[in-house]
Amino acid sequence: MSVRYVLTACLLGALMVGAARPSLAQETKVLRVVPQSDLKILDPIWTTAFVTRNHGYAIYDTLFGVDAEGKVRPQMVGEYSSSTDHMKWSFTLREGLYFHDGKPVTSADVIQSLKRWGERDSLGQRLFAAMESIQAKDDATFEMTLKQPFGLVLEALSKPASVPPFIMPKSVAETPSDKQIDNYIGSGPFIFEVDEYRPGERVVYVKNTKYVPRKEPASGTAGGKVVKVDRMEWVILTDAQTQTNAITNGEVDLIEWVPADQYTALKGNPKIDFANLVPKGSFALHLNHIVPPFNNPKIAQAALMAVNQEALMRAQMVHKELYNTNPSIYPTGSTYNSDKTSFFTGKPQIEKAKELLKEAGYRNEPVVLLYPANFAVLNKFTPVMGALLKQVGFNVDMQSMDWPTLVSRRAMKNLPTQGGWNAFITGWNLPDNINPLFYAPITGNGEKGWFGWTTDEQLENLKAKFLVADTQEERQALADGIQQRVYDAGILAPLGEYKQITAIRKDVIGGIVTSPVGVFWGITKD
After folding, report:
1. How many CB atoms neighbour CB 106 within 10 A?
2. Is the dihedral of CA 179, 66, 502, 226 positive or negative?
3. Which residues does residue 222 pair with via DSSP β-bridges, in sequence order?
4. Is the peptide bond before 293 cis (omega within 30 degrees of 0)?
């Protein structure tokens, strides 16, 4: 056999192998998503921002999940038990749990992750206050012993939102809770590609091929988290029209939250379907209680009296089928929703507010209202709210910024003249405020609490009683009392409820998993 023949045969063989191998574009399924905002904060324990929480669900896992019916289901946990008085709990991790760097998930990782979460989350704080100890029995099993009754152990460990107890490596979870993490190794179904991360442009994840999902079907944040694409790219597009053009042209596959002013155009587009990625949610006005003028509860009450839910929701959501008003802090139709709302009606009480401002001695201090100007799902609210506050007599300073800047700035406790703030508006998902102990902003423990930092001993006492109440009747009465106290202390004002619309490419995207929060496992792309 000649050398020339051998070389020719080798060349032909190489060409045949190359022809048999599909191109990268053919073999790699890439899901391109327009997230509801840019991702600039990467620590899901440090903030309640939706986009950071969704990032957390992609790369981390949780001990328990919540299914579509709201039932708590084991996730990372394989087996668990409690004593008859529920004062001692034992949890054993299921097999096959590994971090993205190949190291096994251990009890030590879980314990340190829960401790860090317990310093940031309001329900986590209460769980650890009730806890005598939490310790590893071995690498897969840990035990929790309580010193006082705590009726929401599983609910806390499965908390789907604001803030979920994501499990991180022990070395990462040792980061002080007031400092953001700088290592993003998780054990979840996606791997975060740090080298490809471009804030303001794109966020990239790849399928964790070594992730072992549960055998149960995906349901909510529970069940098998099966990733059906090879790569997920979050494409950052802040302009609503640009988002619509991109999905129409096939440049992106999914818009997580369709801005209301694009609803009609996309609804009539034959290339687009709507999907229900998450249930309805709500919007609220939040006030800063550690600086003037809202450190005076009467002045805070006057701000709440300025709220005109119908005008605010119509401005932001445009279409009546996309919103409803609701003066309760709890979702419409939920267990604790009630009409016991003290003075708050959701309708403007202009003259009463003016009288209250005068009585409280308001001195015309500027009220810095944070305005996320380029955030299409929120940016119509602020100018309307500013006008309503001016109408009752507030000196409003509306300061424009992007949403990630607002999320960072609301954590600042400085005076407004030194980079702080007085008020801002944000959104919440259904699981955030379905239970008074889940709702992050209704805290009365001062600077340990959520942004706004209200100090209110009466509110904290009501929440403590709710935690140990024996009957539903008692819990309802306490939930009513908590709601009334939220208004009397001027903590926040609900603005109304929204229906979140997700747009997907018709006949291309399927497998959407409806969940209390935005999740991306299960999605298929043809």
Report:
1. 20
2. positive
3. 219
4. yes
Question: At 44, is the secondary structure helix, strand, or coil?
Answer: coil
- Residue 299 makes CB contacts below 8 A (sequence gap 6+) with 293, 356, 357, 360, 362, 490
Number of neighbours of residue 280 by Cβ within 10 angstroms: 17
Q: Positive or negative CA dihedral for 432, 435, 438, 441?
A: positive
Q: How far apart are CA 227 and CA 520, in angstroms?
A: 8
Q: How far apart are CA 346 and CA 164, in angstroms?
A: 30
The 8-class DSSP code of residue 448 comes to G
The Cβ of residue 43 has, within 10 Å, a number of other Cβ atoms equal to: 21
Nearest to 303 by CA among 433, 384, 390, 361: 390
pLDDT tens, 2-59? Answer: 433 333 333 333 333 333 223 444 579 999 999 999 999 999 999 999 999 999 999 9
* Dist. CA 164–CA 113, nearest whole Å: 11
Helical axes 381-392 vs 350-360, angle rounded to 10°: 60
Q: What is the DSSP string of 228-240?
A: -SSEEEEE----H
CB 204 within 8 A of CB 193: yes
User: Measuring CA to CA, which residue among 444, 443, 445, 450 is closest to residue 163?
Assistant: 450
Tokens standing for 482?
């908590």
The pair of three-digit structure tokens given for residue 271, joined into one six-digit string: 């290339």
Identity of residue 228? K
Q: Which residues are registered as beta bridge partners of 167? A: 61
Report how far residue 313's alpha carbon sits from residue 352's, in angstroms, rounded to the nearest whole number.
22
Cα Dmax for the chain: 105
* Sequence-distant (≥ 6) Cβ neighbours of residue 176 within 8 angstroms: none
**Model confidence pLDDT, tens digit, residues 435-490:** 999 999 999 999 999 999 999 999 999 999 999 998 999 999 999 999 999 999 99
CA dist., res. 487 & res. 476, Å (int): 17
